[in-house]
Amino acid sequence: MSEESLARELAAARRTHGFMTAHALEHLNDFEGAYRLQESVRAELGATVVGWKLAAPPAAELISAPLFDIGCMASDTVLADTALLRDGVECELALRIDRPLPLGGCTRDDVMAAVGVVMPALELLCSRLPARFASPREHIVADGMGHGAVVLGAPCSDWRPLELDKLRVTLWADDVPVVDKPGGNPFGDPLLAVALLANHLALRGQTLAAGTFVLAGSHTGVHRARPGERLRCVFEGVGQVALNLREAEPPTFKEQNHAGR
Asked: With 0-12 CB in 10 A as exposed, 13-18 as middle and 19+ as buried, what is 237?
């Protein structure tokens, strides 16, 4: 299958929250091709890059994916299609870049000076791959690292006195706390994560443009949400973000009839 055809199929799966066909990506075995596909999918969707996400599994190189304007939601959105978070939801900090970062050699201090605001965020995970996150890493990259959407809370501009690697985070499902813990994300320090991403992108001749944000890693792990839940994540000192999941539709009379045959 050509790169153009793969981009069309990936874009269609994103639009419908569907899946790629089983062997569509079997010949994709390098990251260069995977990152090219990310850009081709963006063009196919007619989307604008508004942010980035990253991951660095143990003993493996850092990987990244762009986040698109069409996948951004405001806090307290009512989500009708819960397929968009079929692989779970994570609580993260979104750091908005307000000043240019150096193209290579970026440090934590550079990031400290460049970040304007920090926002609480919920990342919705929705892999389009048949094997989901057990897929080859090149395929995960091509699929935008399983990103479904992001829900952003109000920006916090007075974040510099906070120790972002030690913030207490609480995730509530309805009125029940399912996570309540201090500490950072897998990178330890979200500011360091942004510096690592900036240097990773620089190797490909890309920058973190002013106005974009970075999801700097999960502070809570993955929560498997249920239809009808109200999710609320609170980062102490930063703020909160919420998402309302619509109840599952009851089966129609015709479906009930068919099930009883």
From this structure: middle
